Structures are given as C-alpha cells and as structure tokens.
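Run log, item B.
One chain of 335 residues. Sequence copied directly from the ordering sheet:
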Amino acid sequence: MYIFVEGGRVIVTPNSSVPPPSELPSALEPTDVLMKGNLVRLFDGKYPHLLFFRSHIRTGTLFSCLNYKWDTIPLVQVNRVWKIRDDVREQWTKLNMFLTSVLQTLVTKIGLLPLNVLLEPVPSSIPYANDHLEERAARRCAYKALRCFQHLFTMCSWAMGYFPPLDQPVSGWSRLLLDAGFSPTMVQMLRDLPIGQFSPSPSRLGVVVPVSNHDAVITVPRMVKAHIPVWVWWGRCDMNARRNFSTLKDNTAGSQYLNDHCYPSDSDLAEAIRKYSQKTAQPPSLMPAAAPPMDFPKPHNGSGQRLGETWQQFFVHQEQRHLQMLEHETLEQWG
C-alpha cells in the first residue's frame, strides 16, 4: 500500500508506487474519446473501459496490418478517387469484425450494464473503406479508423477483465470465447498480445477512484486483479493528520477491499504527511540545477518542428495536432 498526501488530499493505492497526476482532466465528452481517452482521470461510469488502455497495440501477427502512421497509411488513386489499398481494407474489415464479435460475446456474458455506458466509437463507424475525392480526406479517415482500433482493443481488454482467471488458456474469458465457437488459434493470438495479457508491465492507464462513487468502488477488486493502477481518493486531512473520512460502512466486496487494503492507519498517514512536508520544504540549494541554455539549430521553415524539440517530441505533438483536426471534422468533410 502506498499513501500520497498532496495539497491535503489523501490518495492510497494498493498497486502503484507513483502518485496520480496532480491535475486531473475534466469530464470526458464523447467527441474527445479518441484524443483524450488516454489520460488518467476520475472514474467515469460512461467509460469504464478507458482505464484498461495500453498504448500502441499495433504489433504481432494479428495486429500487424495496423502498424501504420499518419504518412505511411497505404492509399491508392483509382479513377480520380482516393481509397485505402484493397488488401489493407480487407484486413482491417476482417479484424474489426473479429474484435467486435469478441466484445459482443463477452459483453453478453457480463449481463446488464448501466444504460450510460458508451462502447463507441469502433472502426466500423468510420467510413475508411469509402472512396474520397481528396487524398488528405482519405488519409484522415483511415487514421481515425486506426485510433478506433486502439479504442476497440481497450474495450476488449475491459470485457476480458470480468472473467478471471485472466492468465489461464482454458478458463476465464478464454473458455467463454472457445465455447462460443471462436478458433483456438485466434484465442491464443489474443492471449499472446497485450490486449489479452494482464501482467503489471507494461502498465495500463489506471484510474482515480473517489470513495464517494459507489459504482467506482465496487469495481476496484476486479481492477486490481487485472493489474490496473488504482488510486483511491479517500478525502482530505490537515498537517496534524486529522482526517475528514472514515472506513466505508456498506458490505460490498469493493468497500471491504478498500477498508482492508487501502485504508491508512494514523501512523501511515502521519508518515505520508512527514514525507510530503520534507519534499515541499526542500531548500533551493538541493533542488536540481537548471540545465544551461543550448544553441539549437533553427528548424526548417514549414516543418512544424519547434526550437529545441527532439524528433520524438515532434512526432508526439504532430499526432496530437492530427487528432485535433480529426475531432473537429464531420463525416461530410471526409468526402
């Protein structure tokens, strides 16, 4: 158990040695899922799957057809219209059908979900297979479909997480898919890829769980079993360890888990406050010295690269720029 006290907030986690971000993003809007769904935030019942996010799952036998970037998506021009190459379109369509079927099968087994749960967008909601009058429109559409595949992976992982044991090839979610008629080879492919692996590393996104959110609390044991980083927000305390919260009173499995594994004792809380006080009271002389200024070469005009920016940073902000463009476009604008 790790305890973090910052700004009076008491955050406890059973499975992460690092605190959550000090500033959490605002509530997610449906139009922002693809662009901002990979940020740690408070548990949101509309998007219970986003905390299973694991970045860049585009490798391996099953997903190799998705291993493209914005400028490498294979497009062709035929009779004055632009479209994604036929073999890639066919691969994407088959993969979308397979993963959507996996998701639907597992969600059916989960049973009744809250009405506000949003399991979209998916690749089939994007007209990436259509013809487009402009190359850029075809590329935008295909790129957004790629982002939707990442979202579909996350939803599949979330649905798998309902059915432990998660690491056994012939039980749990694997058995459900096999019994539903899925090919053993395809199920094993899922198990061999990050979408079906629930080891602590590489880590998934995680979530901040306020104890006042009952829907979030009841999911904590399942998230911990799936090695999802969970940060439990109990409430606040002052520098004398006087707290405004106590153990949870209901008898649900989630509440019992938090009381048993995530509730800080007086001594634990006092120690966390002491560490926080030491960190904030660190004298300036002990702070890391600022790096000396450097003379960076001037970027080429029109490249979009910022002064002093590495190539890795350049590609990150370029991808964010492309996503922002996509989020403000309509289907009609894609041709």
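Observations after the first pass:
- The mean pLDDT is 84.
- The two ends are 53 Å apart (CA to CA).
Flagged for discussion on Thursday.
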